[in-house]
């Protein structure tokens, strides 16, 4: 690796090798027990808690000099937090970075899964603020661990029942609960439920890091991930009446943007890489 | 003769040096309603908590006749099994309905929770069951989407009862289920409980300080005093012809609740 | 035209430069030095060391300078540096009864062996703004006697002899204390882990909780048995030597809070203890910590747990200001996606509401 491009005084990817080994052990355990939250000795990172310290530690533990890194926040490579995390890794590893999902070997993300399907060999690292799905039902950690151990998930359905009774449909729109490998209830991090189907049988390795809460969990490649629902109220994803006004995509998650003081709106892809590539392809076709 | 549904042997629980339950033994057969009566402080609530898997006794065993594995000691089984029993084959009706209900979700969701806990995944069916139980406990089904927080005490207690019975428990524990209600509300609730016990062939253990509750609901009655069982027998016998001095005192209403 | 949030990279670089300029302030005024901070803002340095869990006045001064005096930010800087440091050895427990005392007071006995030593304290300064200080008046030398006080047995030990104070012997399996900075906090946490967490905890948080216990939320009937502050020796046993060697001296503040206890079925009535310890002259922190430590022992002592200060998960999970500050402020990060999802839902619900549809559709 080119040592010159890296910040002096720090190990490759910031963390010392002992810490990386500790995190890798936690990751291996997480992969062996899909959806189970493995406690790990989360370090105090030079970025604030709640800003991706879990994801950063996971990425730091698995990244090597030959990796190509993509970092997104809300689907975009250009939001300040994504830029900041990407700079951190460039500074501490000197690895190549990319905006293209298909070129990346590691994708660190906050709140989205790329629209471009992932492939075998890729790793997607999710930043997780609160890993415990049962937290709002039961604040005590000692008790929620027991509920997971015994698969006591009835209360989770009570919440969905209540939604239907009140609104006629399940009113959870993001951070939507899933069952991994028909066993553990898992919080997919605050991705929109639009992205939940992408979790299921994904060829890539999916790792989840919660730094402040000191937990790592994983969905290994080709693992079943089922969104909770009722037989007569099946899980549904969001649909838009619009297509992306930049690239015309009708199958992507759209951000609503206010474009003038009169409150006019436009809808555009939240995944900036996907949108750019579609526009490039269109331009090439026209030319 | 079938094996007893619940068989308690030598159950003892101490708080410090004081025995709240001292070497208690009895059996409960399927379809039977047993009342445990005594003054407050006699150890009856401690006994109920030991029987229902909430408080580990210091000595003795509580054998429950499980569906698949015969009689198993409640305190010898894994916590997983015990918690599973507690939300399927057992019911527990708290004195204060707020201890046994989720006040932030609707009455319907409260009643349906156990069904969901054991795997029911059809919203319409769950709702149908909840509705049926609303009417079985004589609540207005139109109010099933309201929070029980908006209900009166007596109505909350009915929701709690329905929430427990929906899983068809083989044994129901009740801790002073009518205490804290107005007398007229008490009478109607007792009437309902008697009807349910009769119709469903409930097996139940009811802790109460109120002998009228025992008389109305229980086939057999067990009298506790200072952590010990002082008298046990058919309810009518115990209440009409008490043999022990303490029971005689209790029946003559000379004792405070 | 849609420009969204391109240019994040340039914005961050600009922000760094703005921050550096703001930190320096008016360039016509001499720049503050680390020595000045260490010598003249010593209590700030102490607090940053205590909550940063790193005893290094020089680095703490640097953190304070870099953070423009924002204490929580300075603690964060120090912590993030600390985490990269190798663990060379674990020190032996410090012996506070051998402390070279700068201050020592007891509120429970009028006089105690070794005496009451007021030392340097703001307690009796009358809090009048000293306008002479604004012009940098010279300071008269302090009387010299306060130095070299003899080591004094702590009051807890003296009370122990009579059996009035509950014994606090190490647990039977007196294992190595866990390291909160290396291993995740797990519940229920033992006393060692609890004290470790409180020692790094935010002073304001502990102060508020401790104050709440005095006002009835988890009351513990406390008396300040002893507060001492001074220098203690730090020793390690290098593996290759096999005996203890002195590696330095640190200043700490210690508080032994003595609390009433009615006794239980197995225990006679006696006093119990809450314990507080912090780096530097951090007396307020040590006292608040001792109150909260005792309050958190409610479960262990068979007292009813009714207030937040008695709930271990509540206190230990929220005491860390670096964690708290990060998570509160992460709300500044974009949440477009979640918000978009909620926006869609809200529109749907409102459409239904104005269309007059009830929830009957939901019913079977």
Helix-strand blueprint:
The complex is a heterotrimer of chains A (287), B (257) and C (364).
Chain A: H1 17-32, E1 38-39, H2 53-62, E2 68-73, H3 80-93, E3 96-97, E4 106-110, E5 123-127, H4 141-149, H5 154-167, E6 178-180, E7 184-186, H6 196-199, E8 205-210, E9 215-219, E10 225-227, E11 254-258, E12 265-269, H7 272-286
Parallel strand pairs in A: 2-3, 2-4, 4-5, 5-8
Antiparallel strand pairs in A: 1-9, 6-7, 6-10, 8-9, 11-12
Helix pairs in contact in A: 1-2
Chain B: E1 6-15, E2 18-28, E3 33-37, H1 44-51, E4 59-66, E5 70-73, H2 79-87, E6 90-93, H3 97-100, H4 107-117, H5 123-136, H6 153-165, E7 171-175, H7 183-200, E8 204-208, H8 211-217, E9 220-225, E10 228-234, H9 235-240, H10 245-251
Parallel strand pairs in B: 3-8, 3-9, 6-7, 7-8
Antiparallel strand pairs in B: 1-2, 1-4, 4-5, 9-10
Helix pairs in contact in B: 4-5, 4-6, 5-6
Chain C: H1 8-24, H2 34-40, H3 42-52, H4 57-66, H5 71-82, E1 100-105, H6 155-160, H7 191-200, H8 203-214, E2 222-236, E3 245-259, E4 272-279, H9 283-295, H10 312-318, H11 321-329, H12 336-354
Antiparallel strand pairs in C: 1-2, 2-3, 3-4
Helix pairs in contact in C: 2-3, 2-4, 3-4, 3-5, 4-5, 7-9, 8-9
Describe, in short, the structure shown:
Chain A is an alpha/beta fold and 287 residues long. Chain A has seven helices and twelve strands.
What would you note in describing this structure?
The complex is a heterotrimer of chains A (287), B (257) and C (364). Chain A is α/β, with parallel strands linked by helices and 287 residues long. Chain A has helices at residues 17-32, 53-62, 80-93, 141-149, 154-167, 196-199, 272-286; strands at residues 38-39, 68-73, 96-97, 106-110, 123-127, 178-180, 184-186, 205-210, 215-219, 225-227, 254-258, 265-269. Chain A has 7 helices and 12 strands. Chain B has 257 residues and is α/β, with parallel strands linked by helices. The radius of gyration of chain B is 18 Å and the shape is globular. Helices cover 38% and strands 25% of the residues of chain B. In chain B, helix 4 crosses helix 5. Chain C folds into 2 domains: 10-82, no CATH class; 96-118 and 150-167 and 183-324, no CATH class. Chain C is 37% helix and 12% strand. Chain C has helices at 8-24, 34-40, 42-52, 57-66, 71-82, 155-160, 191-200, 203-214, 283-295, 312-318, 321-329, 336-354; strands at residues 100-105, 222-236, 245-259, 272-279. Chain C has a 4-stranded antiparallel beta sheet with strand order 1-2-3-4. In chain C, a hairpin with an 8-residue loop joins strand 2 and strand 3 (245-259). The chains are: A alpha/beta (287), B alpha/beta (257), C alpha+beta (364). At the A-C interface, helix 3, helix 5 and strand 11 of A face helix 1, helix 5, helix 11 and helix 12 of C.
């Amino acid at each position: 690796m080119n040592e010159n491009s890296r910040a002096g005084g720090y190990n490759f990817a910031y963390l010392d090798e002992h810490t990386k080994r500790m995190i890798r052990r936690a990751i291996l355990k997480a992969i062996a027990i899909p959806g189970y939250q493995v406690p790990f000795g989360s370090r105090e990172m030079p970025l604030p808690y709640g800003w991706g310290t879990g994801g950063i530690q996971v990425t730091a533990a698995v990244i090597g000099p030959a990796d190509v890194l993509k970092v997104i926040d809300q689907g975009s490579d250009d939001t300040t937090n994504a830029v900041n995390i990407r700079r951190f890794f460039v500074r501490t590893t000197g690895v190549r970075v990319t905006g293209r999902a298909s070129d990346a070997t590691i994708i660190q993300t906050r709140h989205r899964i790329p629209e471009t399907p992932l492939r075998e060999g890729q790793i997607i690292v999710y930043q997780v603020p609160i890993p415990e799905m049962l937290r709002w039902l039961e604040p005590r950690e000692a008790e929620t661990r027991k509920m997971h151990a015994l698969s006591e998930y009835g209360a989770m359905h009570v919440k969905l029942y209540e939604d239907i009774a009140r609104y006629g449909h399940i009113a959870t729109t993001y951070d939507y609960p899933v069952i991994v490998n028909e066993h553990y209830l898992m919080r997919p991090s605050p991705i929109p439920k639009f992205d939940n189907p992408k979790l299921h049988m994904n060829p890539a390795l999916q790792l989840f890091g919660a730094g402040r809460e000191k937990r790592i969990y994983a969905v290994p490649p080709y693992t079943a991930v089922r969104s909770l629902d009722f037989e007569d109220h099946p899980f549904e994803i969001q649909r838009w009446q619009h297509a992306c006004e930049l690239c015309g995509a009708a199958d992507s998650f759209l951000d609503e943007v206010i474009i003038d003081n009169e409150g006019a709106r436009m809808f555009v892809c939240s995944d900036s890489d996907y949108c750019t590539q579609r526009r490039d392809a269109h331009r090439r076709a026209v030319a | 003769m079938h094996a007893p549904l619940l068989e308690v042997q030598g159950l003892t629980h101490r708080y410090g040096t004081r025995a709240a339950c001292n070497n208690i033994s009895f059996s409960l057969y399927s379809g039977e309603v047993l009342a445990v009566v005594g003054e407050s402080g006699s150890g009856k609530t401690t006994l109920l908590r030991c029987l229902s898997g909430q408080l580990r006794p210091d000595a003795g065993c509580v054998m429950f006749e499980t569906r698949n594995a015969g009689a198993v000691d409640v305190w010898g089984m894994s916590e997983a099994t015990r918690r599973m029993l507690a939300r399927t084959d057992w019911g527990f009706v708290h004195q204060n309905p707020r201890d046994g209900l989720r006040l932030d979700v609707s009455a319907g969701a409260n009643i349906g929770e156990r069904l969901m806990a054991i795997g029911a995944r059809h919203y319409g069916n769950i709702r149908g069951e909840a509705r049926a139980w609303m009417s079985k406990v004589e609540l207005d089904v139109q109010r099933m989407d309201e929070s029980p927080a908006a209900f009166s005490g007596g109505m909350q207690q009915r929701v709690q009862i329905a929430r427990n019975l929906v899983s068809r428990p083989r044994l129901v524990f009740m801790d002073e289920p009518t205490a804290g209600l107005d007398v007229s509300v008490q009478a109607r609730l007792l009437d309902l409980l008697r009807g349910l016990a009769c119709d469903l062939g409930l097996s139940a253990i009811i802790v109460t300080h109120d002998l009228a509750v025992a008389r109305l609901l229980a086939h057999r009655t067990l009298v506790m005093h200072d952590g010990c069982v002082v008298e046990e027998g058919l309810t009518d016998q115990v209440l009409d012809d008490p043999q022990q001095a303490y029971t005689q005192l209790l029946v003559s209403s000379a004792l405070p609740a | 035209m849609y420009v969204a949030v391109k240019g994040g990279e340039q914005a961050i670089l600009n922000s760094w430069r703005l921050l550096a300029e703001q930190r320096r302030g008016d360039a016509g005024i001499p720049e503050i030095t680390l020595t000045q901070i260490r010598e003249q803002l010593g209590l700030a340095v102490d607090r940053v060391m205590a909550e940063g869990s790193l005893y290094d006045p020089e680095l703490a001064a640097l953190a304070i300078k870099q953070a423009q005096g924002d204490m929580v930010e300075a603690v964060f800087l120090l912590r993030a540096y600390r985490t990269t440091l190798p663990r060379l050895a674990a020190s032996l427990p410090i012996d506070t009864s051998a402390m070279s005392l700068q201050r020592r007071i007891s509120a429970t006995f009028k006089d105690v062996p070794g005496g009451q030593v007021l030392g340097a304290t703001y307690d009796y300064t009358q809090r009048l703004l000293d306008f002479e200080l604004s012009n940098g008046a010279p300071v008269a030398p302090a009387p010299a006697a306060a130095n070299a006080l003899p080591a004094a047995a702590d009051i807890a030990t003296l009370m122990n002899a009579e059996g009035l104070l509950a014994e606090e012997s190490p647990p039977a399996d007196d294992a190595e204390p866990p390291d909160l900075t290396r291993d995740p906090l797990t519940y229920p946490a033992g006393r060692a882990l609890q004290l470790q967490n409180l020692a790094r905890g935010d002073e304001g948080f502990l102060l508020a909780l401790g104050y709440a216990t005095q006002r009835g939320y988890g009351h513990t009937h406390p008396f300040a048995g002893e507060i001492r502050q001074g220098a203690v020796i730090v020793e390690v046993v290098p593996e290759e030597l096999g005996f203890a060697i002195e590696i330095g001296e640190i200043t700490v503040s210690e508080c032994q809070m003595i609390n009433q206890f009615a006794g239980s079925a197995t225990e006679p009535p006696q006093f119990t203890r809450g314990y507080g310890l912090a780096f530097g002259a951090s007396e307020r922190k040590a006292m608040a910590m001792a109150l909260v430590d005792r309050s958190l022992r409610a479960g262990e002592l068979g007292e009813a747990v009714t207030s937040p200060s008695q709930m271990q998960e509540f206190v230990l999970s929220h005491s860390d200001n670096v964690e708290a500050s990060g998570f509160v402020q992460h709300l500044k990060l974009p949440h477009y996606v979640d918000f978009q999802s909620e926006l869609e839902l809200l529109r749907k619900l409102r459409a239904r509401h104005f269309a007059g549809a009830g929830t009957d559709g939901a019913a079977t």
